[in-house]
Amino acid sequence: MRRKPFPAAPEFPLAEGVLALAAGFALLVQSRTLLVADAHFGYEDVIGGGAALPLWSTAEMATSIAITARRRAAREIVFLGDVIHGPQMSPGACALVASALAGLHDVAALTFIAGNHEGRSRGTAILGTTVEHCERDGWLLMHGDRPGPAGVRTIIGHLHPSLHLGSNTSAQAFLASERIVVVPALTPYSHGLDILSDECIAALAPWDARRSDLHAVAATNDRVYPLGTLSALRAELRAPSPERPARGFIRRRLTPG
Questions:
Q1: What CATH number should be reported for the domain whose range is 12-238?
Q2: Where are the domains of the chain?
Q3: For the chain, what percent of residues have pLDDT higher than 70?
């Protein structure tokens, strides 16, 4: 397995038939299925108790999804759970989220996997029909808040994985091996789990994921940045330089290769 980073590019293969795309989307190539994780539509309204409109992030995220779906000729868009930030929204927020999703339905078929933020109702009052999981191209698609069946190739969201760069700055990041793929969160409101942290690898324990098997791919709005395996990345960022001894992680900018 290659340990060093590849050059930055508009896409990068995460696993068999799965591409990492810019802006944190993933694509199942065979079925042309676009995967979106943790959009948390309606976030502003839910945390503001119905008093935080307008929902600027809803329109922004829906536009980004539509652009990518059209560009990639997606036949289906599958949301990997936490489609909405919570099932209790004001009538105005419900209408805005429903309108945004209706616009996406004009682009491709939509499938909503329920996550922990959909609650006991599974978000059906806002989303309509939801599912607990589905299968596409030989991959089990689920939210990831609960372990899936052992030995099954699985794609999840839930963890909001990101590469923490310091100064409250982070970059969305995919994690992938031959058996598990983690798609970063679309919402702009959460830095999520640092991919280099012990908490992140512990969260992936149900999938028997190891740092030496997982490779990381950071994403910006127009490129993806393959970073090599987690074990190699941790070793590189902790390595001392001749000018300065190592003190925690060395911060580096993501630049096109």
A1: 3.60.21
A2: 12-238
A3: 88
